[in-house]
Amino acid sequence: MSDQLPKLDAFWMPYTGNRFFKKNPKIFKKARGMFYTSHDDQEILDGVSGLWCCNAGHCHPRIVEAVQKQAETLDYAIAFQHGHPKVFELANKIVNIAPKELTHAFFTNSGSEAVDTALKIALAYHRSKGEGHRTRLIGREKGYHGVGFGGISVGGISPNRKMFGSMLPGVDHLKHTHNLEHNAFSVGQPQWGGHLADELTEILALHDPSTVAAVIMEPIAGSGGVLIPPVGYLNRIREICNEHGILMILDEVITGFGRTGKSFGSESFNVTPDIMTIAKGMTSGMVPMGGVLVKQEIYDTFMTGPEENIEFFHGYTYSGHPLAAAAGVATLEVYEEEGLFERASELAPIFEQELQTIKGSQYVIDIRNFGMLGAIELQPIEGKPTVRALNVYKECYSRGVLVRTTGDTVALCPSLIASKDQVSTVVQTVKESIAAID
Ligand SMILES: Cc1ncc(COP(=O)(O)O)c(C=O)c1O
């Protein structure tokens, strides 16, 4: 087997146990639709849409063709002071499906860059309005906002933070909403916990609301364990932000583009942020891309001064790269023409039913779901956190299904093109794997 593999040593792999991987490599050489083909020719059913991103499945022919065509037409267009057609087309298409208040799109190359861009927009917006005293940012425990210094500062997962010094100053965190005592085995949104949003008023009282620029959170905390917001929680955060002139940033890097059964999680939860971060499903994982959507008033606040002056000193060489923009336009067309967001809302109850069949299995202490996101939390092995979920992952993989683990939670996120049978196979394989472990 190893004869067919490339030399593995030089590549320092991201978020990976490099030494373990290089002794037990899992390499994918091809993908199509719901399946990967591994280097040793196993067909692996993808239960996590790549890394929560391939919402239209792998190698969708329409998106492939659009990228190929773009590559031979225009490889790169200077991103500052110039444009190209696809990037404008993509911005128009995205604001068309976003909450109507979000009227402008800024493009980045990843979710992490989207988050750092959103935080910078929030700070610069307040300063432009003569409120430069609003410098504090509030995130949430168990939140994941990528790996830039801004993102890890407002993020709330300790291994992502502890090695990297003091990060951004002036950041505080809300408590997370995960509570097994009250909410274990809630189906959909937990009924208990909306009141936890009121902690924001306490944090504001401590710092004084006039010092706070923005609150950032994921509608559903993905990497923190697929934590579904309790009923009323996000709406209450919105109200408190409104009362105090604080911007609400929703990080929809995972929850965007049909994952919750609507275009964005904010629509599913009926809350409109001032700023939204997006990535992943934006191009169905075909080409890296992220973005930030803002309200008209935020955009207008920047559009002052001499017209030839740069209004926002921020951007990336590859902001709105032609290949990414072409992939984005084709992806949105696929979502629309194949009705994939509606499909997600049709598949969601089936996914939910399947997940419920796991209840009562050994070690299972919680099952969570919303739209096409699901999670099974396991009792950790004493003294060995994460190992039980990893054992389930390994069992699933040996049975030909790819799942993802975060802590002792098995996370599922099937593509929106999945058939009912494939959704069932993913979930039932997790069930069998839980039964098979010690
Ligand atoms: C909510 C959220 N924000 C930001 C990011 C970072 O995105 P990227 O890995 O593209 O930088 C992620 C990635 O999983 C995410 O889930």
Overview of the structural elements:
This protein is of the alpha/beta class. It has two domains: 18-56 and 340-436, Alpha-Beta Complex (Aspartate Aminotransferase, domain 1), CATH 3.90.1150; 64-337, 3-Layer(aba) Sandwich (Aspartate Aminotransferase, domain 2). Helix content is 36%, strand content 16%. The protein contains 15 helices and 15 strands. It has helices at residues 18-23, 49-52, 61-73, 85-97, 111-128, 149-154, 180-183, 199-207, 233-244, 265-268, 296-302, 322-337, 340-356, 387-398, 420-436, and strands at residues 28-32, 35-38, 43-46, 102-108, 136-140, 171-174, 212-217, 247-251, 275-278, 290-295, 364-370, 373-378, 401-402, 404-406, 409-412. It has a seven-stranded mixed sheet with strand order 4-10-9-8-7-5-6, sandwiched between helices. A four-stranded mixed sheet has the order 1-2-3-13. The protein has a four-stranded antiparallel sheet with strand order 11-12-15-14, with helices on one face. α3 (61-73) runs antiparallel to α12, α13 (340-356) runs parallel beside α15 (420-436) and α14 packs across α15 (420-436). It is globular. It starts with 17 loop residues before the first helix and ends with a helix. It binds pyridoxal-5'-phosphate. Pyridoxal-5'-phosphate is lined by residues 110-112, 115, 144-146, 218, 222-223, 251, 253-254, 279, 290.
